[in-house]
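Hello,

I think I submitted the zinc ion job twice by accident. Can you confirm which output corresponds to this input? Input:
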Amino acid sequence: MELHQQGDSIFWFDLEANGLKEFISIYVVIDEKISIIETGPASGHARLLDALSTLNISPNDVSYIIPTHIHLDHFGGGGHLMNVCKNAEALVHPRALPHVINPEVLWSGSQKVLGKIADLYGKPTPIDSERVFSVSNGDEIDLGTTKLKAIFTPGHASHHITWVRGKTAFVGDSLGLWYKNLKRAFPVTPPRYDHDLALESIAITKELDLEWLNYTHFGPRECKGALVQVEEEFNAWMDIVRKGVTNNSSPEEILEVLLNERDALVESQRSDHPIQFNFGSERVATHIVSVHGMLDWLRRFNDKS
Ligand SMILES: [Zn+2]
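Support: Only one job matched these inputs. Its output is below.
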């Protein structure tokens, strides 16, 4: 397994859950206390343990297991990892807490949104309520010589947290997906997405004086110029979805416009980037789910006004 190093205390690797390369990066922060940020889905559990052993870390030495949010591709394997890392505590958003103690609602909701991809990810296992804690916005976790600060960044999900350590942020899905060879990020906005909150969260992230945005999908991105690009892309997608609604376009027709007009998607098709071939037959599954999420938000937003 190839391990990458960022500075002298962060290691990260490609989880390759379900054999998918360049989809999920997992970060291990080494200080006096050891933290694992994101676990990936249950289907990545064995690979995650391999990585710990390559890093010479005994599961018993892990202090914190910390997701940005609890969608299956980020924390579906959280309970599995907690069962092995006997001394670890998990830290989540208050809204996520009941769903990691009893993941049944999360699981049935995931099956509904993701279909058979949920089965490929695998079912989450419950976490003992005495070992999982909720954090408040602004809370700092003492890792020894450094701290990890929770910044609530709702939008992609209402329970999303960006974790900040110095000039590095673990951004989860709050800034969309980003791949080095595509250069640009693009939104990932499943149902229950909130566009206003997503833009607010981007603005909050802009205030943080960061050098690195550590994406889950995929890898560390230099912060310089990135947040402006992310904001533009989120707005451009929503404009296309809005126009689609005005023209009575189907979600598939809206997706077609995005695939043809947005540079990162055009480029990803040209380069056969794996994001386009998510789970083989489920091509562009990620993007159609994002279109549905944006449509869902427009519907809810219009209902409000
Ligand atoms: Zn997510």
